[in-house]
Specification:
The chain has 185 residues and is of the alpha+beta class. The protein has one domain (5-179): Peptide Deformylase (Alpha-Beta Complex), CATH 3.90.45.10. The protein contains four helices and nine strands. The strands form three sheets. A five-stranded antiparallel beta sheet has the order 2-3-4-7-8, sandwiched between helices. The chain has a two-stranded parallel sheet with strand order 1-9. A hairpin with a 5-residue loop joins strand 7 and strand 8 (125-131). The longest helix has 14 residues, at 27-40. The radius of gyration is 16 Å and the shape is globular.
């Protein structure tokens, strides 16, 4: 089932999401819905807060990027109760966008290597290192479960330059091919 994506301005996007247990109700169906929603919205990652659930779950699929870049080593993964252990390397800029903040794409600086502990959809624990675009997508989605948006990582001057667009998104004055829930202002 395709879920509506919660737009910038929704309170759930600013909450530190809660960890879940293996008995979380209908978790497998929810994860399947998240993947379906992410693909429908043409995203490569989606976090539970973006569909209105303040829980520590996100999904990603960078295998889709292989179609546009032969150098990409894509992965498809579900992350539950993820914990960032370390971020290293030389900072690099890359243009990011977000399904919750339509039509805004900006260069964001992040470190290229991360070390993460997480549970998969079967609640098996993993500790793994990710690099490059996979690390970036994970960092972006991990931020969502921490209540952080990619625009929070912008330089203040650049952030001020998009404030008008952000206000329009908050008010629902934006077009989207995907169902969205906007803040009630």
């Amino acid at each position: 089932m395709i879920l509506p994506i919660y737009a910038y301005g929704q309170a759930v996007l600013r909450k530190n999401a809660l960890p879940i247990q293996a008995d979380y109700p209908e978790l497998n169906a929810f994860i399947a819905d998240m993947y379906e929603t992410m693909y429908s919205a043409k995203g490569v990652g989606l976090a539970a807060p973006q569909v209105g659930k303040s829980i520590r779950v996100f999904v990603m699929d960078t295998l889709q990027l292989k179609k546009t870049s032969e150098n990409t080593v894509g992965i498809k993964r579900t992350f539950i109760n993820a914990q960032m252990l370390d971020e290293t390397g030389e900072p690099w800029m890359y243009e990011e966008g977000c399904l919750s903040i339509p039509d805004i794409h900006v260069e964001i600086e992040r470190l290229p290597i991360i070390h993460l502990r997480y549970l998969d959809e079967n609640f098996v624990e993993h500790t793994e290192t990710f690099e490059g675009i996979n690390a970036r997508v994970i960092q972006h989605e991990y931020d969502h479960i921490e209540g952080v948006l990619f625009i929070d990582r912008m330089k203040p001057l650049k952030r001020r330059m998009i404030n008008r667009k952000l206000e329009k998104i908050k008010k629902g004055e934006v077009e989207s091919d995907h169902p969205m829930k906007f803040a009630k202002i």
